[in-house]
User: Fold IS605 OrfB family transposase from Nonomuraea endophytica.
Amino acid sequence: MRLVVRVKLLPTPVQAAALEATLRVSNRAANLVAKIAFEHRCFRHYDLRKLTYDQIKTAFGLAAQAAQHVIKKVSDAYRTLHANLAQPYDDRCLSWQHQERTVSIWTTGGRLKGVAFTGSAPHLALLAGHRRGKSDLAYREGMWFLHTTVEVADVPITRPDGFLGIDLGIVNIATTSTGIRHSGKHLNAARRRHRELRRRRKESRFAANVNHTIAKQIVTEAERTGRGIALEALGGIRERVRLRKPQRVTLHTWSFHQLGSFISYKAARSGVAVIHVDPAHTSQQCSRCGHVDRRNRPDQATFRCTSCGFAEHADVNAARNIASRGVAGWAVSHRCLTRPEPSRPSTTRSRKLGLLRAEKLT
Assistant:
């Protein structure tokens, strides 16, 4: 399993100036490569390298590996790169000293040694033991980061004893089939403040942090109870959900797909099974008797079955339906693994049956 670990660099003012100059030069080179690629309609990495390598290496003073990474980046993305986009580094341009928590990194002004970095303890442990491939140098709002790929062993998926259903929504971002609602007035209040101040990046970080927290709590509950996680298949959620105008902003700005991906990768690291189910009518179906009726939802928060009279919070009822579909979906997709092999009659019994058939025929 591949993950991306982010560590924060702590450069001195002189080191920061060298990093900034390197990033700006690399991205100017990338802009030139993108322009040449567009003019010549040349997008394959090999062909684009033949066309631009010598030119950008000479014009911008890039090292050989740095020039090749610039071309590869443009070839992969093919778009004009902005001044704050990441610059890739491999082990020939970047080396790590984990005990000292410093890196040695190439810049256009020479190699910088002893650039300090920091990060959370779990991230630093992953970085020291499982780093693979390239790292990206990025500058965000006055801070420097290295985004590094790590590769960890896959954890075997534990056979689930039932499923924890997750209903995603607007008022409650995520509700579990056990009745836990992950939301709160402070979340929406903070999001409104960010929108009013037009702090787009700050709101994005806020949403990602909330999604990480919710995903961790959901996976921890599933792992503790030995269950899998059943999620809604989110395809077309923005088209199929009908909401009042004030709620549409929340629907279109909150990253439900990000939350689902966080749950999936955290579950994979813990060996928790995840299954995606069709969410059609889960909000209108009674989780007790299975009756489906639009009138079962008299308002946003209430579910009251018109057939059996069962009442529950609407989101909890929907999450229970998702959990039930998760159990059914898992049984169908894994029946070939759980189906017992047919027993074979013993040799003695087979001979006796053969003699009996022979006697009947005679």
User: Anything to note?
Assistant: The chain has two domains: 2-151, 163-338.
